[in-house]
Amino acid sequence: MTLETFVSLSSILTGYAESTLKPGADTQKLSELYFNVLNKEVAAQTISQLNTVFLGLSNPDEATVKTQIVKDSILGPIAKNIIQMWYSGIWYNLNDKPDESYVVSSIAYKNGLVWSTIYAHPMGYSEETFGYWNTAPNTNITTN
Amino acid sequence: MKPNRTYYPHVLLTSLLLLFCLTSCDNKQAKKEETEPIDPPIVLKDSIVLSPHLPFDVTIVGNDMETTVRRSFDTFSWESFIALNWSEDSSQLIGVDGDNATIWETWKNSGDVFLEDGVKPTPWGAPNQIPPSCSSNDGKFLVMVGKTPDILNELELPFKTGPLIDQNGNYSRFEILMNQEMFEYIDDNQLYSFDGQQAFNKAAEFPEGSKQTKEWGAIMVKGAWKVMGENDDPSKFHTVEAIVYTPAQENPKISESCFKATVGLVGLHIGTKTKISPQWIWSTFEQVDNVPTFGEAKDKAHYNYFNANASDRQINEAPVRPWNPNIPDQIPTQVERLTPIDSGTAALNAEYQQKLRSVNPKSVWQYYELVGTQWPVTPTDLPLGNPFPPFLGNATLETYIQGIIKGDKVELVPNVSTSCMHCHNGATMISNGKPADFTFLLERAQ
Question: What global pTM score does this model have?
Fold first, then answer.
């Protein structure tokens, strides 16, 4: 699987545009970070299978990805982990061992998609100016 | 004293360039003198221009963030550095006599803006206010010890900051100055006082530099200096005769002191607000012999803030308290750079240093390097605009917050390790908590 394919798949899984997940001016390099985690945590054979199935979709959209990948007994847990990694910055252990789940990095923690989705910021980290809570949240968020 | 003028053949090129520059260059003097004739930039050989003309804004070439765009902002930084370190006499090439007095050192010192009881500051161009206890009233007035004010009695530091002690056991000294545009905004809106800020009662919004209007925006400059001493080669520093002043303090007990010394410039921040980068452009320079980079060769015989024979000293650890600059021969700080200078930036540094050498092989300005430039990549994404690079620090001005050393690796943590924009985004006015537009200076109002 290439990074570009990973980003395409991630876009459908998360609902965020590829240009959001991997912007042209990519200061955070999250896609590379998460792609490396995927390759470290999942067997190459499984990733290859995921790649084959995804690239084999004639019309890769939310419905087909849900049917062919998310509901697959082998690929489904991987896809769900990719979603959770993008949204929370956490890689969850695939064998239900919570102690082996981990925050990918501090960059991942502060950039979890969950925060922009709910118009909030992670605990202990905010880029807003002092007193921002006294004004209406910025709802100008692009997902697609 | 004005240096003797020396003529170089390169200067003759200026007349040939006059027509070109009248139509295409941002050719105003760094000092605000609208009625003065427009000078052309001085082109020496290739594409790099040494010019006394401070750029209004960045000119972005290409769209690759890590190469061409970075180079565009780094070029802006170097052009600013050159213009600000040019002498008041713009016809004199920078460093033509080795060293020269600079424009930025004539700007308004922050200590002369935020006065006791919120008194209105003296007008632009008025001389520095010297403490009565200092008998001499010439030279520079360096009152601060540490990057943040009152560092010696501040017990709740926002970061693990502290004094920086050079290899001769002397405290380094710091100062913050602002250009006329920034000063006038503060002065006109009475933001120099607590009461003035309360009456203002909205977020500060300093003027932006613009190529369209050919106006400069707010610029603030932060200088770090060391007292020149044993093993320091003054031919490699911009030096000035300074009045080094330490105000009296009670806790810890520190006596007022004032002495005159030759000090050398070791670090320089330039913060510039522009139309393209309303979150400001953050440029930072250092003297080339300051520190080695973590994990790289330590092959220089002398560093200003590192001793290869003192491996027992913790790297980037602030001195133990109490902090008192009056004690002689203190243990030097052991400093290493934790974020290496980008290879493209280093290449541009080499080009500018070569250009400065071509003016005069003994130019002190060739011994300075751009550590990096941070800018907002997507400035409309408020408030920060996606800063890049994510981390940037000056070894003399963010010594202790560069990052965390873990074994042979460096860990950089957002909002903890140094990032100009992340940090300055938290700046507010002292009276009402309104955003201060990326400057902590407004917190000094009384």
Answer: 0.84
